[in-house]
Write a structure and sequence with these properties.
Order of helices and strands: HHHHHHHHHHHHHHHHHHHHH
Helix content: over 70%
Number of helices: 21
Protein name: Carbon starvation protein A
Membrane topology: Multi-pass membrane protein
Radius of gyration: 22 Å
InterPro entries: CstA, CstA_N
Largest sheet: none
Organism: Promicromonospora umidemergens
Shape: globular
Number of strands: 0
Keywords: Cell membrane, Membrane, Transmembrane, Transmembrane helix
Strand content: under 5%
């Protein structure tokens, strides 16, 4: 199979999904209204609620949800063969992820920017809300802790990425001032930001930064983790327009340029895919394709974390309701394209099948390393970019997106802590909420020692927890649609598929954890399973009641719907 054919088919299907299916969703399902007054305007506070240009907001949303997961998941899942991975990424992006992200964004901004956890209390019940928050908290904790470890490892293994990764923060601060204070045109700002980022990549490639051991009394691993959490804490408290939003925007543009370079290299070199379409000789110990494929590739097909970003930060910045289609659905398309690029890099970036099999010797092998190595080979063959610089470009891309997910994750974790305080009738301010979020996250990361590997302690539960959260988010959206007398099938069908596969995977993992005597993971697995089943049951009961009920007029519809997108 030629990778060029695969790239063309995948890109065409995802763009068709945006141009056709998202238009149907906007017009017939979510009934987007350009005259609706969004929370960004109604509650504008200059910190969390800020009306934002849809292209800038798309950059924030896309890079926040992307992270390293759409690289890691697909690059691991190709161990079953490239065909199942490609099918799930394309079908999942078009009919699952785009609808999920767009729906969560729509539902939240129709309710004053409330999170899905808060909405679950309104539409499912108070018990459901409390259990929903438990699942959300655990998922965000996994993301923040694990991504800190992933970034630390990449900064150490690819020291040429250090300068562009940290220099990007300064670039973002300047871009925020250019857009909001100096009122410079978005096009000129974008050009300057992209040129600055790629200049930093070139400088970094020529000046790799290897930290001395020790540094300030810490090992390089400990130092990088501490620095990352200090940065994430500060970013969590600053107004979104100062750092978070411009950083995400310019990273989003940079990623699309990076994807253009990768797919352009595929166009010029048309490398053959050396991995099998369906791998009949998976290494011993590899779990079954069904259901593990559907939780291994989470981001890139559908992801519960996306619902947290949609309802946690993006909904508070939406300028017009009709922007939901571009920000939410096309944001998912961007992640799908990244996942497709990761699949091609991890299967067509090696010379022979034997070379590929030497990397994929066991389940969970490959990942970012396979993406960087394979993608670097493709960039070198297609555009003649030196292998060292190719690796720096791809590693920087992976780190930048992991970092944007980490800092958004800390901000969302702070929101969850504050919401939990509301349930307990305790008011928790932004600073205290951030401190609590950081203490819990740092405690997990260093729970197994100063190297920070404790951050990966509960990561095996990420895929299943993430997908269960996606199904719970879809259940809330389905209840809202039913109460509005709108056909919920575009939501209910994906909901059923994701929930069945996630619960199936969670039960299988339970047996694995028991056999390995991983008691903490087993207990958490059981807690997540019980909480998710309970919320699902309450959601199905709420759906039944909604079918015979009436539309709830207090759902923050600031004005009657005058027109719809189309």
């Amino acid at each position: 199979m030629n990778s060029l054919v695969l790239a063309v088919i995948g890109i065409a299907l995802m763009l068709a999904g945006y141009l056709l299916y998202s238009k149907f969703l906007g017009k017939k399902v979510f009934r987007l209204d350009p005259a609706f007054k969004t929370p960004a305007h109604e509650l504008n506070d200059g910190v969390d609620y800020v009306p934002t240009n849809k292209f800038v907001l798309w950059g924030h949303h896309f890079t926040s949800v992307a992270g390293a997961a759409p690289i890691v998941g697909p690059a691991v899942a190709v161990i079953w063969g490239w065909l199942p991975a490609v099918l799930w990424v394309t079908i999942g992006t078009v009919f699952f992820a785009g609808m999920h992200d767009m729906g969560a964004l729509w539902a939240s901004q129709r309710h004053k920017g409330q999170s899905m956890g808060m909405l679950s209390g309104k539409y499912i019940g108070t018990r459901g809300r409390a259990l929903f928050l438990v699942v959300i908290f655990l998922l965000l904790l996994m993301v923040v802790a694990a991504f800190a470890v992933v970034i630390k490892n990449l900064l150490i293994s690819t020291p040429s990425s250090v300068i562009p990764v940290w220099g990007a923060i300064l670039v973002a601060l300047v871009i925020g001032q250019m857009i909001y204070r100096w009122k410079i045109s978005l096009l000129l700002t974008t050009i300057i930001g992209v040129v600055a980022l790629y200049a930093l990549i070139i400088v970094g490639d020529a000046n790799a930064i290897v930290l001395p051991d020790p540094i300030l009394g810490m090992s390089p691993a400990t130092f990088w983790i501490v620095a990352l959490f200090v940065y994430a804490g500060i970013a969590s408290l600053l107004p979104v327009w100062v750092l978070l939003q411009p950083r995400d925007y310019i990273n989003g543009v940079q990623l699309f340029i990076g994807l253009g370079i990768l797919f352009g290299s595929v166009l010029l070199s048309a490398p053959a895919i050396v991995a099998p379409a369906i791998n009949q000789n998976v290494p011993e110990g590899t779990p079954p394709l069904v259901p593990l494929l559907f939780v291994t590739i989470a981001c890139g097909a559908i992801s519960g974390f996306h619902g947290m970003v949609s309802s946690g930060t993006s909904s508070k910045q939406l300028d017009k309701e009709t922007d939901s289609r571009f920000v939410g659905y096309f944001g998912a398309v961007g992640e799908g394209l990244l996942a497709l690029g990761a699949i091609i890099a991890a299967t067509a970036g090696y010379r022979t099948l034997a070379d590929w099999e030497a990397v994929y010797t066991a389940f969970n092998e490959g990942g970012v390393a396979a993406f960087v190595e394979g993608g670097g080979n493709i960039l070198n063959a297609g555009l003649g970019i030196p292998l060292g610089l190719s690796a720096t470009i791809l590693a920087t891309m992976a780190v930048l997106f992991a970092a944007t997910t980490m800092d958004t994750g800390v901000r969302l974790l702070r929101f969850v802590v504050q919401e939990a305080g509301e349930l307990a009738k305790v008011k928790i301010g932004g600073l205290l909420g951030t401190v609590i979020a950081l203490v819990v996250s740092v405690g997990l990361v260093f729970s197994l020692g100063a190297d920070g590997e404790g951050g990966m302690l509960i990561w095996p539960l990420f895929g299943t927890t993430n997908q269960l959260l996606a199904s719970l988010t879809l259940s809330v959206i389905a209840v809202i649609l039913l109460r509005k007398k709108i056909n919920p099938l575009p939501v209910v069908i994906p909901l059923a598929v994701v929930m069945v596969m996630s619960i199936y995977a969670l039960v299988l993992q339970m047996g694995t954890f028991y056999a390995e005597q991983s008691w903490m993971l087993l207990v958490l697995d059981i807690i997540i399973l019980i909480a998710s089943l309970w919320v699902a049951l309450e959601a199905f009961i709420a759906m039944g009641k909604a079918r015979g009920g009436v539309d709830d007029e207090d759902d923050a519809d600031n004005k009657p719907v005058a027109s719809v997108e189309g």
